[in-house]
Write a structure and sequence with these properties.
Radius of gyration: 19 Å
Largest sheet: 6 strands, mixed
Oligomer: single chain
Mean pLDDT: 90
Order of helices and strands: EEHHEHEHEEEEHHEHEEHE
Low-confidence stretches: 1-15
CATH topology: Beta Polymerase, domain 2
CATH architecture: 2-Layer Sandwich
Shape: globular
Number of helices: 8
Distance between the termini: 48 Å
Number of domains: 1
Number of strands: 12
Length: 281
């Protein structure tokens, strides 16, 4: 039995009656800045996918990107980022091969490649665009183009991950109070290095001795779990006309994280990540 949900601006919110064309026209019609950004992110993903397949590196679409594949066969119409995940051994391998494999129009951004970058996950950046995020954390980074996020996963006790979030959380406080200047960037770099080379190695020793679960890497400000039996073996799903890896049981993975992921949110309360954006042809 089909249960119809209320309409939002004329767009039905029941998963079986979503008007994809109406959503596209509202948020990302062909030629719009958001659609051009999405297509540039797709170029980044296609290249990362090529490299991963070449080197036998496993990854999967995640978060809103995975919702987009399941619900829209592409980007959520208002989505302005793209996320993939992988286990830590694959992540380490990818970090080694990306600098040699990426074309000159793209760049790897990580704590190893950018001295002011303080996230413990990586980005692949487009060098033919300039993006300023609304939180302005990127104002001191070397690469500022359109990007996709790459998140590592490994087993750790929840307390260890939460502790790593708190130790790195001081960086966000500094960035939020620093304004447009960079006089305190030395503190950001020092805290990030201290966590990377001292706190995280110590916590990883405890991870080996404690009951653990698979979740985001240390220092990443999210700690929702993953169940590997829901992810492997990977399968594939259509996303923007391409086939990309997704978890074995996408429904379980998305339900665990979001609940009823097929239900549209209130489209009048959508907030985008991007503050300013320019794209070269």
């Amino acid at each position: 039995m089909m249960i119809l949900q209320p309409a939002i601006n004329g767009i039905m919110t029941d998963s079986s009656t979503i008007d994809q064309d109406a959503l596209r026209q509202k948020f990302n019609p062909d030629g719009s800045l958001l659609r051009r950004q999405q297509l540039r992110m797709l170029e980044l993903l296609v290249e990362v996918d090529r490299i991963c397949r070449k080197h036998g590196i496993r990854y999967w679409l995640s978060s809103g990107t995975l919702i987009g594949a399941a619900r829209h066969k592409g980007f959520i119409p208002w989505d302005d980022d793209l996320d993939i995940e992988m286990l830590l051994p694959d992540y380490k391998r990818l970090m080694k091969v990306l600098p040699q494999e990426l074309p000159d129009t793209m760049a790897l951004q990580s704590v190893e490649t950018d001295p002011n970058y303080f996230f413990f996950y990586a980005k692949v950046r487009d060098r033919r665009s300039h993006l300023e995020e609304s939180n302005r954390y990127d104002r001191v980074w070397k690469e500022r183009g359109i990007y996709i996020d790459i998140f590592p996963f490994y087993k750790q006790p929840l307390w260890a991950h939460i502790l790593s979030e708190k130790t790195q959380g001081h960086v966000y406080k500094i960035m939020n109070r620093m304004g447009e200047g960079d006089k305190e960037m030395w503190k950001v770099r020092a805290i990030t290095r201290f966590n990377r080379f001292i706190v995280h190695p110590v916590l990883k020793l405890f991870c080996k001795l404690s009951r653990a679960r698979e979740t985001y890497g240390l220092g990443i400000p999210y700690h929702d779990p993953r169940h590997l039996e829901d992810i492997f073996p990977l399968t594939e799903m259509e996303f923007e006309g391409h086939m990309f890896p997704v978890p074995k049981d996408t429904h379980k993975v998305l339900t665990l994280k979001y609940g009823d992921y097929m239900q549209l949110p209130n489209v009048d309360q959508i907030n985008l990540h991007v503050g300013e954006l320019s794209i070269d042809e």
